[in-house]
Amino acid sequence: MAPGLSQPDPAEVQSLRMNAPASSTRTLDLYDKLREDLLSGRLKPGQKLQMRFLMEAYQAGQTPLREALNRLTAEGLVEAREQRGFLVAPVSRSELRELTMTRCWLEALALRKAMEAATPAWEEELVVAHHRLSRTPRSLNPEQFEDNPDWERLHRIFHRTLISQCGSAPLIGFCDQLADRLYRYRRLSIRHAFPSRKVADEHQAIVTAVLDRDVERAVELLMRHYQQTADVILEDPSL
Amino acid sequence: MAPGLSQPDPAEVQSLRMNAPASSTRTLDLYDKLREDLLSGRLKPGQKLQMRFLMEAYQAGQTPLREALNRLTAEGLVEAREQRGFLVAPVSRSELRELTMTRCWLEALALRKAMEAATPAWEEELVVAHHRLSRTPRSLNPEQFEDNPDWERLHRIFHRTLISQCGSAPLIGFCDQLADRLYRYRRLSIRHAFPSRKVADEHQAIVTAVLDRDVERAVELLMRHYQQTADVILEDPSL
DNA sequence: GAAGCATAAAATTTATAAATCATTTGCAGG
DNA sequence: CCTGCAAATGATTTATAAATTTTATGCTTC
Fold this sequence. Notes:
Chain A is mainly alpha-helical.
Protein backbone atom coordinates (compact mmCIF):
# COMPACT_ATOMS: atom_id res chain seq x y z
CA MET A 1 0.00 0.00 0.00
CA ALA A 2 1.19 3.47 -0.83
CA PRO A 3 2.42 5.30 2.24
CA GLY A 4 0.81 8.54 3.31
CA LEU A 5 -2.61 7.77 1.97
CA SER A 6 -5.03 5.18 3.12
CA GLN A 7 -6.30 3.34 0.10
CA PRO A 8 -9.45 5.20 -0.91
CA ASP A 9 -12.38 2.90 -0.98
CA PRO A 10 -14.12 3.20 -4.34
CA ALA A 11 -17.41 3.97 -2.65
CA GLU A 12 -15.80 6.68 -0.58
CA VAL A 13 -14.16 8.27 -3.59
CA GLN A 14 -17.52 8.24 -5.26
CA SER A 15 -19.05 10.02 -2.30
CA LEU A 16 -16.78 12.99 -2.88
CA ARG A 17 -18.66 13.98 -5.95
CA MET A 18 -21.65 16.04 -4.99
CA ASN A 19 -23.61 15.16 -8.08
CA ALA A 20 -23.54 12.01 -10.07
CA PRO A 21 -21.00 12.49 -12.83
CA ALA A 22 -23.14 11.18 -15.65
CA SER A 23 -20.32 12.17 -17.97
CA SER A 24 -20.33 10.40 -21.26
CA THR A 25 -16.69 9.38 -21.17
CA ARG A 26 -14.73 7.54 -18.55
CA THR A 27 -11.89 10.03 -18.98
CA LEU A 28 -13.99 13.04 -18.08
CA ASP A 29 -15.46 11.25 -15.13
CA LEU A 30 -12.00 10.30 -13.91
CA TYR A 31 -10.70 13.76 -14.60
CA ASP A 32 -13.38 15.25 -12.38
CA LYS A 33 -12.75 12.78 -9.59
CA LEU A 34 -8.99 13.18 -9.68
CA ARG A 35 -9.31 16.93 -9.82
CA GLU A 36 -11.58 16.99 -6.82
CA ASP A 37 -9.23 14.76 -4.84
CA LEU A 38 -6.28 16.86 -5.90
CA LEU A 39 -7.89 20.17 -4.95
CA SER A 40 -9.27 18.86 -1.69
CA GLY A 41 -5.87 17.63 -0.61
CA ARG A 42 -6.99 14.05 -0.37
CA LEU A 43 -4.20 13.33 -2.79
CA LYS A 44 -1.29 14.92 -1.01
CA PRO A 45 1.23 17.24 -2.67
CA GLY A 46 4.33 15.37 -3.72
CA GLN A 47 2.60 12.02 -3.50
CA LYS A 48 3.51 9.54 -6.14
CA LEU A 49 0.68 8.50 -8.44
CA GLN A 50 1.38 4.93 -9.38
CA MET A 51 -0.68 3.54 -12.20
CA ARG A 52 -1.35 0.34 -10.39
CA PHE A 53 -2.62 2.16 -7.35
CA LEU A 54 -4.75 4.57 -9.36
CA MET A 55 -6.29 1.79 -11.42
CA GLU A 56 -7.22 0.05 -8.22
CA ALA A 57 -8.45 3.12 -6.37
CA TYR A 58 -10.50 4.57 -9.18
CA GLN A 59 -11.48 1.33 -10.84
CA ALA A 60 -10.36 2.30 -14.30
CA GLY A 61 -8.02 1.25 -17.05
CA GLN A 62 -4.84 3.05 -17.80
CA THR A 63 -5.94 4.66 -21.06
CA PRO A 64 -8.47 7.05 -19.50
CA LEU A 65 -6.24 7.45 -16.46
CA ARG A 66 -3.26 8.59 -18.46
CA GLU A 67 -5.54 10.86 -20.43
CA ALA A 68 -6.92 12.51 -17.30
CA LEU A 69 -3.46 12.79 -15.76
CA ASN A 70 -2.14 14.48 -18.86
CA ARG A 71 -4.86 17.08 -18.77
CA LEU A 72 -4.25 17.71 -15.11
CA THR A 73 -0.54 18.02 -15.82
CA ALA A 74 -1.26 20.77 -18.33
CA GLU A 75 -3.14 22.59 -15.58
CA GLY A 76 -0.28 22.35 -13.15
CA LEU A 77 -2.11 20.13 -10.66
CA VAL A 78 -0.08 17.05 -11.54
CA GLU A 79 3.54 16.77 -12.51
CA ALA A 80 4.87 14.26 -15.02
CA ARG A 81 8.44 13.11 -14.76
CA GLU A 82 9.99 11.50 -17.73
CA GLN A 83 10.02 7.74 -17.27
CA ARG A 84 9.19 8.16 -13.62
CA GLY A 85 5.48 8.48 -13.75
CA PHE A 86 3.20 11.09 -12.30
CA LEU A 87 3.06 12.76 -8.94
CA VAL A 88 0.79 15.25 -7.27
CA ALA A 89 2.26 18.70 -7.94
CA PRO A 90 4.15 19.74 -4.83
CA VAL A 91 3.34 22.95 -3.03
CA SER A 92 5.70 25.56 -1.68
CA ARG A 93 5.55 28.99 -0.16
CA SER A 94 7.47 30.39 -3.09
CA GLU A 95 5.01 28.95 -5.58
CA LEU A 96 2.12 30.34 -3.56
CA ARG A 97 3.71 33.77 -3.71
CA GLU A 98 4.38 33.49 -7.42
CA LEU A 99 0.87 32.31 -8.25
CA THR A 100 -0.68 35.03 -6.13
CA MET A 101 1.48 37.71 -7.71
CA THR A 102 0.66 36.51 -11.19
CA ARG A 103 -3.02 36.27 -10.41
CA CYS A 104 -2.99 39.82 -9.09
CA TRP A 105 -1.33 41.05 -12.26
CA LEU A 106 -3.61 39.21 -14.65
CA GLU A 107 -6.86 39.86 -12.83
CA ALA A 108 -5.99 43.52 -12.38
CA LEU A 109 -5.42 43.69 -16.12
CA ALA A 110 -8.61 41.80 -16.87
CA LEU A 111 -10.70 43.88 -14.49
CA ARG A 112 -9.45 47.10 -16.06
CA LYS A 113 -10.37 45.85 -19.51
CA ALA A 114 -13.72 44.60 -18.26
CA MET A 115 -14.55 47.95 -16.69
CA GLU A 116 -13.52 49.74 -19.88
CA ALA A 117 -16.02 47.57 -21.72
CA ALA A 118 -18.68 47.67 -19.02
CA THR A 119 -22.30 47.17 -20.04
CA PRO A 120 -25.52 47.20 -18.03
CA ALA A 121 -25.95 43.50 -18.74
CA TRP A 122 -22.57 42.71 -17.26
CA GLU A 123 -23.19 44.86 -14.20
CA GLU A 124 -26.46 43.06 -13.61
CA GLU A 125 -24.78 39.71 -13.98
CA LEU A 126 -22.24 40.77 -11.40
CA VAL A 127 -24.91 41.95 -8.99
CA VAL A 128 -26.72 38.64 -9.31
CA ALA A 129 -23.54 36.62 -8.82
CA HIS A 130 -22.71 38.61 -5.72
CA HIS A 131 -26.24 38.36 -4.39
CA ARG A 132 -26.20 34.58 -4.64
CA LEU A 133 -22.79 34.36 -3.04
CA SER A 134 -23.76 36.64 -0.16
CA ARG A 135 -26.76 34.48 0.69
CA THR A 136 -24.76 31.30 0.92
CA PRO A 137 -22.94 30.39 4.13
CA ARG A 138 -19.18 30.00 3.91
CA SER A 139 -19.24 26.98 6.19
CA LEU A 140 -21.89 24.35 6.60
CA ASN A 141 -21.25 24.40 10.33
CA PRO A 142 -21.10 27.77 12.16
CA GLU A 143 -19.02 26.32 15.00
CA GLN A 144 -16.31 24.61 13.08
CA PHE A 145 -15.36 24.99 9.47
CA GLU A 146 -17.01 22.56 7.13
CA ASP A 147 -16.52 23.25 3.47
CA ASN A 148 -19.65 24.34 1.63
CA PRO A 149 -19.36 23.26 -2.00
CA ASP A 150 -22.12 25.66 -3.00
CA TRP A 151 -20.20 28.60 -1.61
CA GLU A 152 -17.05 27.55 -3.42
CA ARG A 153 -18.89 27.26 -6.69
CA LEU A 154 -20.61 30.62 -6.30
CA HIS A 155 -17.39 32.24 -5.19
CA ARG A 156 -15.67 31.02 -8.30
CA ILE A 157 -18.51 32.25 -10.47
CA PHE A 158 -18.41 35.65 -8.79
CA HIS A 159 -14.73 36.17 -9.51
CA ARG A 160 -15.08 34.90 -13.02
CA THR A 161 -17.99 37.22 -13.71
CA LEU A 162 -15.86 40.11 -12.51
CA ILE A 163 -13.42 39.63 -15.38
CA SER A 164 -15.74 37.96 -17.92
CA GLN A 165 -16.23 41.29 -19.70
CA CYS A 166 -12.51 41.72 -20.45
CA GLY A 167 -12.94 40.54 -24.02
CA SER A 168 -10.29 37.84 -24.05
CA ALA A 169 -11.20 34.19 -23.68
CA PRO A 170 -7.54 33.17 -23.37
CA LEU A 171 -6.99 35.62 -20.54
CA ILE A 172 -10.03 34.33 -18.70
CA GLY A 173 -8.67 30.81 -19.16
CA PHE A 174 -5.32 31.78 -17.68
CA CYS A 175 -7.03 33.36 -14.70
CA ASP A 176 -9.10 30.23 -14.21
CA GLN A 177 -6.00 28.12 -14.17
CA LEU A 178 -4.34 30.31 -11.58
CA ALA A 179 -7.53 30.23 -9.53
CA ASP A 180 -7.52 26.43 -9.56
CA ARG A 181 -3.95 26.14 -8.45
CA LEU A 182 -4.48 28.68 -5.68
CA TYR A 183 -7.70 27.02 -4.60
CA ARG A 184 -5.66 23.97 -3.67
CA TYR A 185 -3.57 26.08 -1.30
CA ARG A 186 -6.72 27.45 0.30
CA ARG A 187 -8.04 23.96 0.87
CA LEU A 188 -4.77 22.70 2.23
CA SER A 189 -4.72 25.23 5.03
CA ILE A 190 -8.45 25.75 5.34
CA ARG A 191 -8.55 24.92 9.01
CA HIS A 192 -5.96 27.51 9.76
CA ALA A 193 -7.43 30.10 7.47
CA PHE A 194 -10.97 30.01 8.76
CA PRO A 195 -12.55 32.23 9.90
CA SER A 196 -9.91 34.85 9.81
CA ARG A 197 -11.66 37.68 8.05
CA LYS A 198 -14.80 39.00 6.50
CA VAL A 199 -14.51 38.04 2.85
CA ALA A 200 -18.14 38.96 2.30
CA ASP A 201 -17.37 42.60 3.06
CA GLU A 202 -14.48 42.54 0.66
CA HIS A 203 -16.69 41.18 -2.11
CA GLN A 204 -19.29 43.85 -1.39
CA ALA A 205 -16.68 46.60 -1.55
CA ILE A 206 -15.42 45.35 -4.90
CA VAL A 207 -18.91 45.26 -6.39
CA THR A 208 -19.57 48.79 -5.14
CA ALA A 209 -16.34 50.08 -6.69
CA VAL A 210 -17.15 48.40 -9.99
CA LEU A 211 -20.64 49.87 -10.10
CA ASP A 212 -19.17 53.28 -9.21
CA ARG A 213 -16.87 52.90 -12.22
CA ASP A 214 -13.97 53.56 -9.90
CA VAL A 215 -11.36 51.48 -11.70
CA GLU A 216 -8.41 52.23 -9.45
CA ARG A 217 -10.31 51.41 -6.29
CA ALA A 218 -11.81 48.23 -7.71
CA VAL A 219 -8.42 46.99 -8.86
CA GLU A 220 -6.83 47.93 -5.55
CA LEU A 221 -9.53 46.08 -3.58
CA LEU A 222 -9.36 42.99 -5.74
CA MET A 223 -5.59 42.76 -5.46
CA ARG A 224 -5.72 43.25 -1.72
CA HIS A 225 -8.37 40.54 -1.55
CA TYR A 226 -6.04 38.01 -3.18
CA GLN A 227 -2.99 39.22 -1.33
CA GLN A 228 -4.69 38.85 2.04
CA THR A 229 -5.87 35.37 1.19
CA ALA A 230 -2.29 34.41 0.43
CA ASP A 231 -0.99 36.10 3.57
CA VAL A 232 -3.31 34.10 5.77
CA ILE A 233 -2.20 30.87 4.15
CA LEU A 234 1.46 31.86 4.40
CA GLU A 235 1.01 32.23 8.16
CA ASP A 236 0.04 28.59 8.37
CA PRO A 237 3.02 26.81 9.88
CA SER A 238 1.85 23.47 8.50
CA LEU A 239 2.62 24.52 4.93
CA MET B 1 -5.70 7.31 -47.74
CA ALA B 2 -7.08 10.37 -46.05
CA PRO B 3 -7.89 13.18 -48.46
CA GLY B 4 -6.26 16.55 -48.14
CA LEU B 5 -2.95 15.38 -46.81
CA SER B 6 -0.36 13.30 -48.51
CA GLN B 7 0.72 10.58 -46.17
CA PRO B 8 3.79 11.94 -44.39
CA ASP B 9 6.68 9.62 -44.99
CA PRO B 10 8.31 8.84 -41.64
CA ALA B 11 11.71 9.91 -42.94
CA GLU B 12 10.29 13.19 -44.18
CA VAL B 13 8.58 13.92 -40.93
CA GLN B 14 11.81 13.17 -39.22
CA SER B 15 13.59 15.69 -41.37
CA LEU B 16 11.36 18.43 -40.04
CA ARG B 17 13.03 18.28 -36.68
CA MET B 18 16.12 20.42 -36.70
CA ASN B 19 17.84 18.26 -34.14
CA ALA B 20 17.58 14.53 -33.71
CA PRO B 21 14.72 13.79 -31.36
CA ALA B 22 16.71 11.62 -29.01
CA SER B 23 13.76 11.91 -26.68
CA SER B 24 13.58 9.10 -24.22
CA THR B 25 9.85 8.56 -24.60
CA ARG B 26 7.80 7.85 -27.64
CA THR B 27 5.20 10.32 -26.45
CA LEU B 28 7.59 13.25 -26.37
CA ASP B 29 8.96 12.35 -29.75
CA LEU B 30 5.45 12.15 -31.17
CA TYR B 31 4.48 15.32 -29.42
CA ASP B 32 7.33 17.18 -31.11
CA LYS B 33 6.54 15.76 -34.52
CA LEU B 34 2.85 16.49 -34.27
CA ARG B 35 3.51 19.95 -32.97
CA GLU B 36 5.87 20.72 -35.83
CA ASP B 37 3.36 19.47 -38.38
CA LEU B 38 0.61 21.44 -36.69
CA LEU B 39 2.59 24.68 -36.58
CA SER B 40 3.90 24.32 -40.09
CA GLY B 41 0.41 23.86 -41.47
CA ARG B 42 1.19 20.41 -42.80
CA LEU B 43 -1.73 19.30 -40.72
CA LYS B 44 -4.43 21.67 -41.89
CA PRO B 45 -6.73 23.62 -39.57
CA GLY B 46 -10.03 21.85 -39.12
CA GLN B 47 -8.66 18.57 -40.38
CA LYS B 48 -9.88 15.48 -38.61
CA LEU B 49 -7.22 13.51 -36.78
CA GLN B 50 -8.31 9.91 -36.94
CA MET B 51 -6.45 7.48 -34.76
CA ARG B 52 -6.13 4.96 -37.52
CA PHE B 53 -4.58 7.50 -39.84
CA LEU B 54 -2.26 8.91 -37.21
CA MET B 55 -1.07 5.49 -36.13
CA GLU B 56 -0.25 4.73 -39.72
CA ALA B 57 1.33 8.09 -40.53
CA TYR B 58 3.44 8.39 -37.42
CA GLN B 59 4.06 4.71 -36.86
CA ALA B 60 2.94 4.69 -33.26
CA GLY B 61 0.46 3.05 -30.94
CA GLN B 62 -2.59 4.79 -29.63
CA THR B 63 -1.41 5.25 -26.06
CA PRO B 64 1.41 7.70 -26.79
CA LEU B 65 -0.66 9.26 -29.55
CA ARG B 66 -3.56 10.05 -27.26
CA GLU B 67 -1.09 11.34 -24.72
CA ALA B 68 0.53 13.71 -27.20
CA LEU B 69 -2.84 14.84 -28.56
CA ASN B 70 -4.04 15.62 -25.07
CA ARG B 71 -1.05 17.80 -24.37
CA LEU B 72 -1.52 19.60 -27.65
CA THR B 73 -5.17 20.08 -26.82
CA ALA B 74 -4.20 21.83 -23.61
CA GLU B 75 -2.08 24.20 -25.68
CA GLY B 76 -4.91 25.02 -28.04
CA LEU B 77 -3.28 23.50 -31.12
CA VAL B 78 -5.65 20.56 -31.21
CA GLU B 79 -9.33 20.37 -30.34
CA ALA B 80 -10.96 17.37 -28.70
CA ARG B 81 -14.61 16.65 -29.25
CA GLU B 82 -16.33 14.34 -26.89
CA GLN B 83 -16.74 10.94 -28.51
CA ARG B 84 -15.84 12.42 -31.84
CA GLY B 85 -12.09 12.36 -31.66
CA PHE B 86 -9.54 15.05 -32.28
CA LEU B 87 -9.17 17.65 -34.98
CA VAL B 88 -6.61 20.29 -35.82
CA ALA B 89 -7.70 23.48 -34.10
CA PRO B 90 -9.40 25.65 -36.70
CA VAL B 91 -8.19 29.16 -37.40
CA SER B 92 -10.21 32.31 -37.82
CA ARG B 93 -9.63 36.00 -38.18
CA SER B 94 -11.42 36.65 -34.94
CA GLU B 95 -9.19 34.22 -33.05
CA LEU B 96 -6.13 35.83 -34.59
CA ARG B 97 -7.31 39.21 -33.34
CA GLU B 98 -8.08 37.87 -29.90
CA LEU B 99 -4.75 36.08 -29.54
CA THR B 100 -2.85 39.14 -30.73
CA MET B 101 -4.70 41.42 -28.36
CA THR B 102 -4.10 39.09 -25.43
CA ARG B 103 -0.46 38.68 -26.31
CA CYS B 104 -0.04 42.45 -26.46
CA TRP B 105 -1.60 42.80 -23.04
CA LEU B 106 0.40 40.07 -21.37
CA GLU B 107 3.74 40.86 -22.95
CA ALA B 108 3.31 44.56 -22.23
CA LEU B 109 2.71 43.61 -18.61
CA ALA B 110 5.63 41.20 -18.55
CA LEU B 111 8.00 43.67 -20.20
CA ARG B 112 7.11 46.36 -17.67
CA LYS B 113 7.82 44.00 -14.81
CA ALA B 114 11.01 42.82 -16.45
CA MET B 115 12.27 46.37 -16.90
CA GLU B 116 11.40 47.17 -13.30
CA ALA B 117 13.59 44.26 -12.29
CA ALA B 118 16.28 44.88 -14.87
CA THR B 119 19.81 43.67 -14.11
CA PRO B 120 23.03 43.94 -16.09
CA ALA B 121 23.04 40.18 -16.58
CA TRP B 122 19.59 40.29 -18.16
CA GLU B 123 20.52 43.21 -20.41
CA GLU B 124 23.57 41.32 -21.59
CA GLU B 125 21.49 38.23 -22.26
CA LEU B 126 19.14 40.33 -24.32
CA VAL B 127 21.98 41.90 -26.29
CA VAL B 128 23.37 38.47 -27.06
CA ALA B 129 20.00 37.09 -28.10
CA HIS B 130 19.47 40.05 -30.39
CA HIS B 131 22.97 39.81 -31.81
CA ARG B 132 22.46 36.18 -32.75
CA LEU B 133 19.10 36.88 -34.29
CA SER B 134 20.39 39.81 -36.31
CA ARG B 135 23.14 37.71 -37.85
CA THR B 136 20.78 35.01 -39.04
CA PRO B 137 18.93 35.36 -42.34
CA ARG B 138 15.15 35.38 -42.19
CA SER B 139 14.88 33.24 -45.29
CA LEU B 140 17.23 30.56 -46.53
CA ASN B 141 16.66 31.85 -50.04
CA PRO B 142 16.95 35.61 -50.73
CA GLU B 143 14.79 35.38 -53.86
CA GLN B 144 11.85 33.49 -52.53
CA PHE B 145 10.87 32.82 -48.96
CA GLU B 146 12.19 29.61 -47.51
CA ASP B 147 11.72 29.19 -43.81
CA ASN B 148 14.92 29.28 -41.79
CA PRO B 149 14.43 27.16 -38.67
CA ASP B 150 17.44 28.78 -37.02
CA TRP B 151 15.90 32.21 -37.38
CA GLU B 152 12.61 31.01 -35.94
CA ARG B 153 14.36 29.49 -32.97
CA LEU B 154 16.45 32.58 -32.30
CA HIS B 155 13.45 34.83 -32.80
CA ARG B 156 11.55 32.92 -30.20
CA ILE B 157 14.48 33.07 -27.81
CA PHE B 158 14.80 36.81 -28.33
CA HIS B 159 11.20 37.48 -27.42
CA ARG B 160 11.32 35.14 -24.49
CA THR B 161 14.46 36.78 -23.17
CA LEU B 162 12.70 40.12 -23.35
CA ILE B 163 10.18 39.05 -20.74
CA SER B 164 12.24 36.44 -18.90
CA GLN B 165 13.08 38.93 -16.18
CA CYS B 166 9.44 39.55 -15.26
CA GLY B 167 9.64 37.27 -12.25
CA SER B 168 6.69 35.03 -13.00
CA ALA B 169 7.17 31.59 -14.52
CA PRO B 170 3.41 31.17 -15.08
CA LEU B 171 3.21 34.44 -16.97
CA ILE B 172 6.13 33.44 -19.19
CA GLY B 173 4.36 30.15 -19.83
CA PHE B 174 1.16 31.92 -20.86
CA CYS B 175 3.11 34.14 -23.23
CA ASP B 176 4.81 31.09 -24.71
CA GLN B 177 1.47 29.49 -25.34
CA LEU B 178 0.13 32.56 -27.10
CA ALA B 179 3.34 32.75 -29.13
CA ASP B 180 2.88 29.16 -30.28
CA ARG B 181 -0.69 29.66 -31.37
CA LEU B 182 0.18 32.86 -33.20
CA TYR B 183 3.22 31.27 -34.81
CA ARG B 184 0.87 28.92 -36.60
CA TYR B 185 -0.93 31.87 -38.17
CA ARG B 186 2.38 33.32 -39.29
CA ARG B 187 3.30 30.07 -40.94
CA LEU B 188 -0.05 29.65 -42.60
CA SER B 189 0.23 32.92 -44.45
CA ILE B 190 3.99 33.09 -44.66
CA ARG B 191 4.09 33.44 -48.41
CA HIS B 192 1.81 36.40 -48.29
CA ALA B 193 3.52 37.96 -45.31
CA PHE B 194 7.07 37.86 -46.61
CA PRO B 195 8.94 40.14 -47.04
CA SER B 196 6.59 42.88 -46.08
CA ARG B 197 8.64 44.79 -43.56
CA LYS B 198 11.90 45.17 -41.73
CA VAL B 199 11.42 43.17 -38.57
CA ALA B 200 15.13 43.43 -37.83
CA ASP B 201 14.81 47.19 -37.39
CA GLU B 202 11.88 46.71 -35.07
CA HIS B 203 13.86 44.32 -32.90
CA GLN B 204 16.76 46.74 -32.82
CA ALA B 205 14.51 49.59 -31.74
CA ILE B 206 13.04 47.51 -28.94
CA VAL B 207 16.46 46.55 -27.61
CA THR B 208 17.56 50.18 -27.69
CA ALA B 209 14.48 51.29 -25.77
CA VAL B 210 15.01 48.59 -23.16
CA LEU B 211 18.65 49.52 -22.68
CA ASP B 212 17.63 53.19 -22.42
CA ARG B 213 15.24 52.16 -19.65
CA ASP B 214 12.47 53.82 -21.60
CA VAL B 215 9.60 51.62 -20.49
CA GLU B 216 6.81 53.38 -22.33
CA ARG B 217 8.67 53.38 -25.61
CA ALA B 218 9.75 49.76 -25.29
CA VAL B 219 6.20 48.63 -24.53
CA GLU B 220 4.80 50.75 -27.35
CA LEU B 221 7.29 49.32 -29.85
CA LEU B 222 6.72 45.74 -28.77
CA MET B 223 2.96 46.07 -29.02
CA ARG B 224 3.20 47.69 -32.43
CA HIS B 225 5.52 44.86 -33.50
CA TYR B 226 2.89 42.26 -32.68
CA GLN B 227 0.03 44.31 -34.01
CA GLN B 228 1.74 44.84 -37.36
CA THR B 229 2.50 41.15 -37.67
CA ALA B 230 -1.19 40.43 -37.17
CA ASP B 231 -2.24 43.17 -39.59
CA VAL B 232 -0.10 41.69 -42.37
CA ILE B 233 -1.63 38.26 -41.82
CA LEU B 234 -5.13 39.71 -41.67
CA GLU B 235 -4.59 41.18 -45.13
CA ASP B 236 -4.03 37.71 -46.50
CA PRO B 237 -7.17 36.86 -48.47
CA SER B 238 -6.46 33.13 -48.21
CA LEU B 239 -7.16 33.11 -44.48
C1' DG C 1 -42.92 11.21 -55.92
C1' DA C 2 -40.50 13.91 -52.29
C1' DA C 3 -39.74 14.88 -47.43
C1' DG C 4 -39.33 13.26 -42.85
C1' DC C 5 -38.39 9.89 -39.52
C1' DA C 6 -37.20 5.59 -37.50
C1' DT C 7 -34.29 1.79 -37.70
C1' DA C 8 -30.28 -0.91 -39.13
C1' DA C 9 -25.53 -1.11 -40.53
C1' DA C 10 -20.96 0.74 -40.64
C1' DA C 11 -17.35 3.42 -38.98
C1' DT C 12 -15.00 5.49 -35.22
C1' DT C 13 -13.88 6.61 -30.76
C1' DT C 14 -13.19 5.05 -26.17
C1' DA C 15 -11.85 1.57 -22.90
C1' DT C 16 -9.76 -2.84 -21.12
C1' DA C 17 -6.41 -6.31 -20.78
C1' DA C 18 -2.33 -8.74 -21.52
C1' DA C 19 2.26 -8.84 -22.95
C1' DT C 20 6.65 -6.70 -24.11
C1' DC C 21 10.23 -3.36 -23.86
C1' DA C 22 12.92 0.13 -21.46
C1' DT C 23 14.29 2.56 -17.53
C1' DT C 24 14.80 3.39 -12.92
C1' DT C 25 15.76 1.92 -8.29
C1' DG C 26 17.27 -0.79 -4.46
C1' DC C 27 20.61 -3.75 -2.88
C1' DA C 28 24.45 -6.79 -2.62
C1' DG C 29 29.18 -7.66 -3.54
C1' DG C 30 33.46 -6.15 -4.66
C1' DC D 1 32.13 4.16 -2.69
C1' DC D 2 31.47 2.30 -6.84
C1' DT D 3 29.65 -1.43 -9.91
C1' DG D 4 26.43 -4.42 -11.55
C1' DC D 5 22.56 -7.34 -11.02
C1' DA D 6 17.61 -8.00 -10.01
C1' DA D 7 13.18 -6.42 -9.11
C1' DA D 8 9.88 -2.86 -9.70
C1' DT D 9 7.76 0.46 -12.39
C1' DG D 10 6.63 3.05 -16.28
C1' DA D 11 5.98 3.20 -21.37
C1' DT D 12 4.40 1.07 -25.39
C1' DT D 13 2.26 -2.19 -28.44
C1' DT D 14 -1.24 -5.19 -29.79
C1' DA D 15 -5.61 -7.13 -29.72
C1' DT D 16 -10.19 -6.79 -28.52
C1' DA D 17 -14.48 -5.20 -26.67
C1' DA D 18 -17.91 -1.76 -25.67
C1' DA D 19 -20.20 2.46 -26.59
C1' DT D 20 -21.39 6.18 -29.63
C1' DT D 21 -21.74 8.69 -33.73
C1' DT D 22 -22.37 8.67 -38.59
C1' DT D 23 -24.18 6.88 -42.71
C1' DA D 24 -27.32 4.21 -45.23
C1' DT D 25 -31.78 2.19 -45.84
C1' DG D 26 -36.54 1.72 -46.05
C1' DC D 27 -40.94 2.98 -44.67
C1' DT D 28 -44.61 6.22 -43.88
C1' DT D 29 -46.97 10.42 -44.83
C1' DC D 30 -48.27 14.47 -47.29
